[in-house]
Amino acid sequence: MSSSPEFLVFGATGQQGCVVARALREAGREVRAFVRDPQSERARALAAEGITLAVGDLFDRASIDRAMTGIRGIFSVQASSPSGLVTDEQEVAQGKAIADSAVAAGVAHLVYSSGGAAGKGHTGMGHFDSKSRIEDHIRGLPIAATITRPASFMEMMMLPGMGLNTGVFTFFMQRRQSMQMIALDDLGRINAQILLQPGRYAGQTLELSGQDITGEYLEEAFSRAAGHPIRYQRFSDELLAGNDFLRQLSALVDKGIVAGVADIPALEREFGPMLKLDQWLSGPGKVLFEEALNAPQAGISLR
Ligand SMILES: NC(=O)c1ccc[n+]([C@@H]2O[C@H](COP(=O)([O-])OP(=O)(O)OC[C@H]3O[C@@H](n4cnc5c(N)ncnc54)[C@H](OP(=O)(O)O)[C@@H]3O)[C@@H](O)[C@H]2O)c1
């Protein structure tokens, strides 16, 4: 480990941790990334950008404690059960372990990346309710903390099986129903700004989203970006009848629990313009979009 990283980022080889670590690094800060395998391609890419690696495992509290040495601010995120890497109980245990370790080490500020469904009552979906439990635990600890609740990632729409390669894109919202979404780049820069200004954001819970997106808008934006028509439809009743996970999630979208409640104009006043889907498709999401358009057929896979 190098001598003086200020920030410790968990999940740095994953979607969120990676963009947060990079945004902090781009701001000229020393960053330590908590990684399981320092030889993985993603870990080596972080190291090549000047990010120090701390090797550990969230199932090993001693390795978390070791990584905290000298740290001022932490970005905490855990895998959840749809990934197959953890159970819901293990996600909760890992989220609590990071926070407890931060308190024991006297870390000044913790940012916990939760989820948009947290804090809205019991949802019945383990990987959402887990986040409310971690939030409650953190609020009870003697540490300055900021909780960020990201909406669904725009990147998630590029996962296999959503149909961009077939000309018919299927997703959660109804054609005229809106669901909030955010680009990972925005999530990275906002969480980094929060870590860089703990005094301004400590004690806050922030719902993060970049845009309200309807099924009809997806049809227009995807067709424009692809240069050929892409129709939008909600997951079919047949698919939902055979897939408990998607059925429960779609029902929570209908109830408004995962449709998103972020105040986007207020976020833009605080953090600057958020990426809209059109901009994302022609910018940071361009490669993912082209890959999804040209992907071989596959079953739906979400995390
Ligand atoms: N997808 C969405 O739209 C969305 C929206 C809001 C919230 N969320 C939440 O976001 C969270 C996942 O974040 P993400 O998508 O950024 O993660 P991700 O891309 O799935 O990556 C998971 C990260 O956790 C690390 N990890 C897993 N098990 C570990 C362990 N035992 N010890 C140390 N590190 C471990 C992985 O490291 P390795 O490289 O070693 O595997 C990787 O860096 C979930 O809780 C999910 O519910 C997702």
TrEMBL record:
Signal peptide: none annotated. Gene3D superfamilies: NAD(P)-binding Rossmann-like Domain (3.40.50.720), UDP-galactose 4-epimerase, domain 1 (3.90.25.10). SUPFAM superfamilies: NAD(P)-binding Rossmann-fold domains. Residues 8-240 form the NmrA-like domain. InterPro entries: NAD(P)-bd_dom_sf, NmrA-like, NmrA-like_oxidored. Keywords: NADP. It comes from the Bacteria. The keyword NADP applies. Coiled coil: none annotated. Belongs to the NmrA-type oxidoreductase family. This is NmrA/HSCARG family protein. It comes from Halodurantibacterium flavum.
